[in-house]
């Protein structure tokens, strides 16, 4: 790369040189991206699951960072990686969030509506209540750790902020392993649903705590709850609204162009279909951004909003697309999300190598990892207990699924994003400590948990060939589309249990609303959900 | 939109408000994009060729701009459209440049290698010599116009800069009409090849003139030529080098993964193929950027480099991709290029409405349009004369093709990009005048020429059903893959003609080099070019 610096003289002098340095940085980044992709491909081809793609990217970033450190050109190279927060939030995070919704692999493991809806109550419990528990437990433990001089001391509110941001789990690596190895659809729905909604909760909690921190005077607990609901419900409503708008528009476009389904009738219909696909895809790419911008414009959380837009679009708009458009949209989000994710992991590896380490950070990282393990256990096992209280015997979440759920709590891009924001939100030392700790935690969990998830899931016997049969059918046998009506056998009339069941029933009435009104209205296929199920069943044979 | 300003109070005050305004701007832009796409789709469905998509976008931008002007919130809205030059050059221009290479429509009108190579000499003549002629003629006429007080007076070098930037033609609208209506493959290859290479020439000329302007002292004509060759040949070499690297890597990836073509042999091969496609697509997206950055890092022109990378990638790397990857890459570039282009046209319309107009600008615009028409005539007819001198009788470019070529000289995104740069390169008033004039010229040519090209081409009888037959065969009948060996009938021994023919022969020896060495080495298909041809022929039936 050195020869680039002695390239033909540019008359514009210093600013041009700076621009050139930025160019060299981007060149280096592109080379690292290419290397990561090729390496990831080779590793996957040899079924070497101990080093998933994310870890490979991390290690490449780490290696380049260490080399840069040794070659003493640190300041120069540091400048190459000028990582704008805005760039991250606007261009890297949205595809990473959206991709999981639109996976359409041949192995049939996309977010199928049935297992998702029948586990909706459990998912919401894990994601909303569980994440709240995990955040508070982590926050309190980190605060106590600070008080007892085990680790760097942070104010209580900042501990809660850290607890919230570190509770955002990342589905990508675990889900990709699930997809390759095959697993129970219910477990898949739980892990996926939890890790998706959990981000929304973590962000809302983080924002609420951030508001509390900046207005220390006269904040009642009531105001706190209002602020939280404002962020969460507001962003959710904006996201859901944009999602339904997109469903409506895609529905109208499809109706308007419905004669295109018979290409032989029109002379240039081939081209028209190409253009229709392009239009559909454009709308699909634009609406999530619209949702993001609308929420941010309203002072809400764009990421939470985009999440809910993704959910609604997956369920309603996506099925309006033609087959080829569905394939394209899926491949498109796959492409940009893997580019974005690889970039984030390379950056994290690089950052770790560049960081000035101090012992206080090492202690903070070590105890944080311990505490988030405890907090995740508090989340998973308490929520599973609650969910099992409300479920009939044959639908209880088995212990091995609970353990798998506990183990699959990787931290990823979202925790990193919030930590990046905390550097701006908190005073210098504190934000930097949180950022360093979060980066290290993400790297360690990705390397350790990501590398061992395959083995762990096999030991828990939740993956492998016995689950590899016709998933659709085995699902069909266990759980209907409509949540079961709790036949007789639940006899105890405990009031708390009743409440839980009411909540479950409201879930099933939402399912009915969806099936009877929303799906027929917003999509072109009346109620042919079974088609999806057949696809799921067939594709695994 | 107004309610967004009185949204829930944000504690961070003014900078947050600014960010909110930017958010509202992006919201508005997304809405305009959605509207443009839907409107464009409706217009195309009704075969209303007088208002192509580009014009529709322009008019939407214009309308919003006028409304914003009337509502007197000009300053506010102006701020919404903070259009960063860097954003344009890095994110909008590359897909617009690359897309035409990877068109893969069902009507078979992509850049087929045969007509392109057999017209290579003509294309190079039009693009290199012709663009030089057009630039110089425009520059001189604009200078003379300034001297005779017909229009705003610019220094001679700046006139040449303007001449160079306004000579960059835009293929997209014309080609899309050609694609919908069908035309002669030779004319298509000429128009396409000329408009692609012509950009490279225009940029290099512009940069050379820009260097001359900033170093007025002691620049000999010799240095000028050296500078020009440095930019042009340097950028071309960088682009071609990266293109061949990409071909080699894609070739290696395909060889390494070649057993994936038999998915039944492997249990999870379905997923592997998905991942392979993702890898291939990533490489395809990354390499053009690598080329851009490499050239910019070397102080050369990234856009010229990306152009040549596109040419090489189209010819060698693209054929290594699997069918589904080819479809995906094509749809991907279609998507982002149409987003980028629509955005640029909306912006131009908006800018026109916002601009403070003065009479000097109107005059400048009027005479510029006159002069570029004259300059384009000088380009097309003189080059066609030269080409026809060297060609045997049955391959001469007919007058109606020359007229069609003259007429299809729309100005588009590239001229706009260079004008945007000239605002920075030239003193305040001059750069602004050139920018305003260029924007207006682009808008007018797109509206007038774009809207009437269909009619014009029909009047010239170069489109329509008589050309709609098996194109491959009619091409086969007229011109072989190897340029013909000038059998006997060219008897006159004029030295100039001999030179021209030597040039033509060198073109055909390049064709032989490509066929015998490059294509077999860099691609997986040995020499099955005929396959492409059959595709071309069949698809029109």
TrEMBL record, chains A, B:
Domain Cation/H+ exchanger transmembrane span(s) in chain numbering: 36-458
Keyword Cell membrane set for record: no
High-level lineage: Eukaryota, Viridiplantae, Streptophyta, Embryophyta, Tracheophyta
Membrane topology recorded in Swiss-Prot or TrEMBL: Multi-pass membrane protein
Listed name of the protein: Sodium/hydrogen exchanger
PANTHER family listed in its UniProt record: SODIUM/HYDROGEN EXCHANGER (PTHR10110), SODIUM_HYDROGEN EXCHANGER 5-RELATED (PTHR10110:SF127)
Keyword Transmembrane carried by entry: yes
Main location as per UniProt: membrane
Superkingdom of source: Eukaryota
Catalytic activity: Na(+)(in) + H(+)(out) = Na(+)(out) + H(+)(in); K(+)(in) + H(+)(out) = K(+)(out) + H(+)(in)
Organism: Penstemon smallii
């Amino acid at each position: 790369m050195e020869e680039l610096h002695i390239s033909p003289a540019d008359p514009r002098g210093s600013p041009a040189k700076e621009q050139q340095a930025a160019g060299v940085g981007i060149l280096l980044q592109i080379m690292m991206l290419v290397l990561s992709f090729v390496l990831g491909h080779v590793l996957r081809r040899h079924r070497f699951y101990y080093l998933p793609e994310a870890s490979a990217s991390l290690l490449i970033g780490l290696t380049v960072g260490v080399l840069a450190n040794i070659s003493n050109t640190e300041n120069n190279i540091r400048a190459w990686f000028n990582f704008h927060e805005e760039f991250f939030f606007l261009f890297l995070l949205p595809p990473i969030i959206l991709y999981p919704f639109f996976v359409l692999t041949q192995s049939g493991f996309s977010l199928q509506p049935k297992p998702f809806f029948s586990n909706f109550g459990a998912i919401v419990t894990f994601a909303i209540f569980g994440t709240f528990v995990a955040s508070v437990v982590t926050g309190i433990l980190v605060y106590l750790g600070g008080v007892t001089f085990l680790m760097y001391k942070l104010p209580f509110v900042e501990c809660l902020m850290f607890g919230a941001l570190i509770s955002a789990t990342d589905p990508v690596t675990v889900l990709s392993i699930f997809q390759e190895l095959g697993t129970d659809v219910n477990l898949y729905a739980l892990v996926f649903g939890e890790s998706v909604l959990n981000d929304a909760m973590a962000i809302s909690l983080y924002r609420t705590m951030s508001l509390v921190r900046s207005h220390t005077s006269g904040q009642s607990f009531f105001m706190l709850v209002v602020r939280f609901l404002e962020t969460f419900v507001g962003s959710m409503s904006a996201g859901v609204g944009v999602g339904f708008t997109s469903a409506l528009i895609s529905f109208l476009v499809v109706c308007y162009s419905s004669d295109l389904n018979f290409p032989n009738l029109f002379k240039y219909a081939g081209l028209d279909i190409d253009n229709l696909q392009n239009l559909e895809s454009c709308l699909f790419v634009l609406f999530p951004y619209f949702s993001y911008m609308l929420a941010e414009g309203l002072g809400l959380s764009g990421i939470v909003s985009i999440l809910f837009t993704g959910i609604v679009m997956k369920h309603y708009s996506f099925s309006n697309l033609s087959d080829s458009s569905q394939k394209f949209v899926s491949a498109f989000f796959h492409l940009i999300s893997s580019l974005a994710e690889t970039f984030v992991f390379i950056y994290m590896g690089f950052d770790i190598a560049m960081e000035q380490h101090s012992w206080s950070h090492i202690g903070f990282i070590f105890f944080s990892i311990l505490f988030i393990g405890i907090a995740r256990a508090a989340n998973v096992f308490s929520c599973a207990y609650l969910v099992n209280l409300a479920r009939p015997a044959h639908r209880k979440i088995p212990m091995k699924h609970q353990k798998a759920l506990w183990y699959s709590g990787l931290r990823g891009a979202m925790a990193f994003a919030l930590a990046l924001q905390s550097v701006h939100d908190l005073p210098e030392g504190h934000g930097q400590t949180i950022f360093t700790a979060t980066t290290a935690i993400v790297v360690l969990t990705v390397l350790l948990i990501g590398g061992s998830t395959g083995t762990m899931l096999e030991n828990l016997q939740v993956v492998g060939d016995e689950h590899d049969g016709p998933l659709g059918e085995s699902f069909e046998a266990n759980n209907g589309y409509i949540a079961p009506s709790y036949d007789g056998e639940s006899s105890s009339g405990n009031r708390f249990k009743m409440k839980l069941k009411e909540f479950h029933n409201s879930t099933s009435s939402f399912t009915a609303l969806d099936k009877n009104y929303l799906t027929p209205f917003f999509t072109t296929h009346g109620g042919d959900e079974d088609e999806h199920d057949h696809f799921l069943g067939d594709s695994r044979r």
